Amino acid sequence: EARTALADIPESFIPPLPGDIAPIAQRLSDILGRALDMHVTNASIVPLPNYLKSMIPSAAAYSFARFENPRRVTFLNMQAPWTLPSLTLLMAHETYAHLWHFAEVDAHATLSRRLPAMYRYTCTEGVALLVEDHVATRAVETLSQELSISFSIDATTIKHALVRTMLSMRLRRILRSMFEHYVYALKMEPAAAIAQVLPLSLDSNDDLKEDLYAYLPTPGYASTYFHGFSLLKEMGASLDDAWRKKIADSGFDIQSLAS
């Protein structure tokens, strides 16, 4: 379905972002906050340390001292080949999904639901894809106009690029889940599993291989993204006020959202 949807969206070339990425990421964060009507306190953008780049090629969200004086950080790889749509969706995923989720959970959920276990990552990664989906659907017109004004790029070009990038990212996450299933459930050798997955990809083979192998040390994690998103969509989840409260109250336990 993602591949079919991609074929229906006109290709829009937007060149890689030049120069210092940090101020651009901050501008994008501010624009996203207005477009999504979401706010995260004590949040900052920090360059990803070099020693983590082999494990985290693009970015990651983390909350420090969550029960005392929380500091919420988006670690960002400043040297990655970012484009405006890819960095926009990345900031939506890390800052206005994960960090927002952490902050809301800390403020509202019970203690038992504040402590994330591995299986509960299904919830926060599902929320992150829900926010990405919102960026490329319900918020895309408003966001494209704001980005057009801020970066002097045609709004329609930005809109098409945002939708294509979101769908491409979704396809990659589906392929991660398939790869994980082949390796851990069907007991295939990683090389054989990759041979099954590569023909379905729209990315370069080397780029996808690196991404897939990055998830091998954490069985189960690659599947949490699309699994969590699918469960939330089945429940009718959205980013309206009622669902935001549900997500906050549920903590990291996606099962409690169904009740």
Runs with pLDDT <50, length 5+? none
Radius of gyration: 18 Å
Q: Calculate the mean pLDDT score and round it.
A: 90
Helix and strand element order: HHEEEHHHHHHHHH
Strand percentage lies at: 5-15%
Cα end-to-end separation: 29 Å
Q: Specify the helix fraction band.
A: 55-70%
The total of helices stands at 11
Secondary-structure map with pairings?
Blueprint: H1 2-7, H2 21-36, E1 43-47, E2 59-64, E3 71-76, H3 84-108, H4 121-135, H5 140-151, H6 155-185, H7 190-197, H8 205-214, H9 221-234, H10 241-250, H11 254-257
Parallel strand pairs: 1-3
Antiparallel strand pairs: 2-3
How do you describe this structure in short?
This protein is mainly α and 259 residues long.
Task: Write up what this structure looks like.
- With 259 residues, the protein is mainly alpha-helical.
- It is built from eleven helices and three strands; from the N terminus they run ααβββααααααααα.
- The chain has helices spanning 2-7, 21-36, 84-108, 121-135, 140-151, 155-185, 190-197, 205-214, 221-234, 241-250, 254-257, and strands at 43-47, 59-64, 71-76.
- Strands 1-3-2 form a three-stranded mixed beta sheet, covered by helices on one side.
- Helix 2 (21-36) packs across helix 3 (84-108) and helix 6 runs antiparallel to helix 7.
- The radius of gyration is 18 Å and the shape is globular.
- It starts with a helix and ends with a helix.
- The mean pLDDT is 90.
